[in-house]
Amino acid sequence: MIKTSRFLTVALTAAATLSLACPSAFAEQERVTLHCGGPDLGVAVLNCAPASPEKPATHSCESLSRADDPKVEALLGLLGVSAPADSDVGLTCAPPGIPG
């Protein structure tokens, strides 16, 4: 019998939800370079915007979505996180230069 922690169960559930909600997140595609000021939740990073000279890239993500998108709300809910509806969330991210 395999014992799992609650965190692992939530992380696996969130990853499964992300793959169902955004199937293209796991396909090869061009990544988006973002400047994110919020916490990195593993599958999502909060408070993101496209990188600029004034705000250099902190993450390379598969996509950028609004926090009020129903799929993103569901994912954040599984992670136990709430975000302002008007904030942007980077999905499936890694630091720049590290393959995601």
Largest sheet: 5 strands, antiparallel
Q: What is the mean pLDDT?
A: 78
The counted number of beta strands is 5
Taken together, the total number of domains comes to 1
Q: How many angstroms separate the termini?
A: 32 Å
Q: Which strands sit side by side, in order, in the main sheet?
A: 2-5-4-1-3
State the order of secondary-structure elements, H for helix, E for strand. Answer: HEEEEHE
The helix fraction, in percent, is 25-40%
Structural account:
This protein is of the alpha+beta class and 100 residues long. It has 2 helices and 5 strands. It has helices spanning 6-21, 70-78; strands at residues 32-36, 44-46, 48-50, 59-66, 88-94. The radius of gyration is 14 Å and the shape is globular.
What's the helix and strand layout?
Elements: H1 6-21, E1 32-36, E2 44-46, E3 48-50, E4 59-66, H2 70-78, E5 88-94
Antiparallel strand pairs: 1-3, 1-4, 2-5, 4-5
Helix pairs in contact: 1-2
